[in-house]
Every structure is written in structure tokens, then in C-alpha cells.
Amino acid sequence: MFINAYFLVKWKIKLNGRFFYLRSIVSSALGELIFTGVTVTLVQIGISGAHAIIEMILVSLTIKIMFTLFSSFLAAGIKKRLIQIDGGNYFEVVNNYNPFTIKSA
Questions:
Q1: Residue 76 — pLDDT band, cuts 50, 70, 90?
Q2: DSSP output for 49-79
Q3: CA 37/CA 60 separation, integer angstroms
Q4: How far is CA 70 from CA 6, 32, 33, in A?
Q5: Which pairs with CB-CB distance under 8 Å and at least 24 residues apart come from 1-7?
Q6: Quick check: helix, strand or coil at residue 43?
Q7: Is the pTM of the predicted complex or chain greater than 0.70?
Q8: What is the mean pLDDT of residues 48-61?
Q9: 8 Å CB contact between 36 and 55
Q10: What is the pLDDT of residues 10-23, one digit of tens each?
């Protein structure tokens, strides 16, 4: 989830808050690729062959990306409505997204 959120926010800054649908799909796909690749490999290594592991990763990614395509329409609609309620699309460009930094009080 951290990878997904990181890419989503970084691309929001680079694209000036536009193209939410594209940003959400691509960031979700990248996050799922990394997460699924690592977890399936770690769970199946020594049990299944490389071909079977790759097949499991591809099938899992296909299902997850299909769900992402569907849910991104819903998320884009919610985002649009929230912008209407709030009166604007505000975002900050100066943020530190490093989870290992310690913020002094």
C-alpha cells in the first residue's frame, strides 16, 4: 500500500493534480506488481517451479488489475464529488514521504 500511495501522490504533484484515473490505475498496478511478485515468490519458492510461479503472478495481477479498473471509476467519481463539496482541488507540493525520518516537536 505504501508504494501505491507514494506513486499516486508523487504523480499528482508532477501532473498538477490532473489525470486521477490514469494515476490511480498505474500506481495500483505498480504496487500490486511489486507486492504480488514478492509475496508469491516467497511463498512458492521451493514448492513450485519458476514457470508456475510466473503464471501465478500473472493470473493474480490480471484479476487485481481488472478490479482496479472497475474501482478506479468509483474512486474518480468520489474524488470529483469531494472536490465539488470542498470547492477546489488542493494539494501540497512540499512533503517528505520518507517513513524513516524522525520529526522533531
A1: confident
A2: -HHHHHHHHHHHHHHHHHHHHHHHHHHHHHH
A3: 10
A4: 21, 15, 18
A5: 1/31, 2/99, 3/27, 3/30, 3/31, 3/34, 3/35, 4/28, 4/30, 4/31, 4/32, 6/97, 7/31
A6: helix
A7: no
A8: 95
A9: no
A10: 877 787 777 878 88
CB 52 within 8 A of CB 27: no
Phi and psi for 89 in degrees, rounded to 5? Answer: -110, 90
Residue 4 neighbours by CB distance under 10 Å: 19
State what percent of residues in the chain have pLDDT above 70.
82
Phi, psi of 45 (to 5 degrees): -60, 135
Cell of 36: 504480488
* Euclidean distance between CA atoms 4 and 99, whole angstroms: 14
Going by C-alpha positions, the residue among 58, 63, 65, 27 that lies closest to residue 41 is 58
